[in-house]
């Protein structure tokens, strides 16, 4: 009987851990409460495996200037405009990110509504990208600096030099 209970517990635990999509269970819980999951989502490993994907940065220009995913295009959030993505074919894979995924989820919704067919929101945002060792660049090349948005959200960054 005890073995059966232990095995059931182990199966439940393994199932719960396998569904976690970021490195920290607490961060994953926070994201689950924040995001509406209204668009397809990609984990960091999934996004990194998308060879032909275009990365779009939905943060402020100030945040983008501190650092961004190599090759990413800044599209913003508060002043997002479809004109900024007019040169991207609507059937091309697109990964949209922000700090944690909220702003990029909203931009992803707008892209899907505009007819883009292969849009993914980067689950955990650039914070999780950095936490999992993803590279960053600024206008001068590779960097470890990352805009941490604010101290409350910045606590989810486990790597990189935080800039506020």
What features would you describe in this structure?
By secondary structure, the protein is α/β, with parallel strands linked by helices. The protein has a single domain (24-163), classed as Oxidized Rhodanese, domain 1 (3-Layer(aba) Sandwich), CATH 3.40.250.10. Helices cover 38% and strands 16% of the residues. The protein has seven helices and nine strands. The strands form three sheets. The protein has a five-stranded parallel sheet. The radius of gyration is 17 Å and the shape is globular. The N and C termini lie far apart (54 Å). The model is unreliable at 5-18 (pLDDT under 50).
Name the CATH superfamily classification: Rhodanese-like domain
* Largest β sheet strand count, sense and barrel closure: 5 strands, parallel
Q: SSE order in H/E notation?
A: HHEHEHEEHEHEEEHE
The total tally of domains equals 1
Strand order of the largest sheet: 1-5-4-2-3
- The radius of gyration over CA amounts to 17 Å
Uncertain segments of ≥5 residues (pLDDT<50)?
5-18
Number of helices: 7
Helix amount, in percent? 25-40%
Shape: globular
Strand content: 15-25%
CATH class: Alpha Beta
Overall pLDDT level: 92
Compute the separation of the termini in Å.
54 Å
Q: State the total count of DSSP E strands.
A: 9
**CATH fold title:** Oxidized Rhodanese, domain 1
Global structural class: alpha/beta
What CATH architecture would you give? 3-Layer(aba) Sandwich
Protein topology:
Elements: H1 2-19, H2 25-34, E1 41-42, H3 44-48, E2 54-57, H4 61-66, E3 73-74, E4 94-97, H5 102-113, E5 119-122, H6 125-131, E6 137-138, E7 141-142, E8 145-147, H7 151-154, E9 161-163
Parallel strand pairs: 1-5, 2-3, 2-4, 4-5, 8-9
Antiparallel strand pairs: 6-7
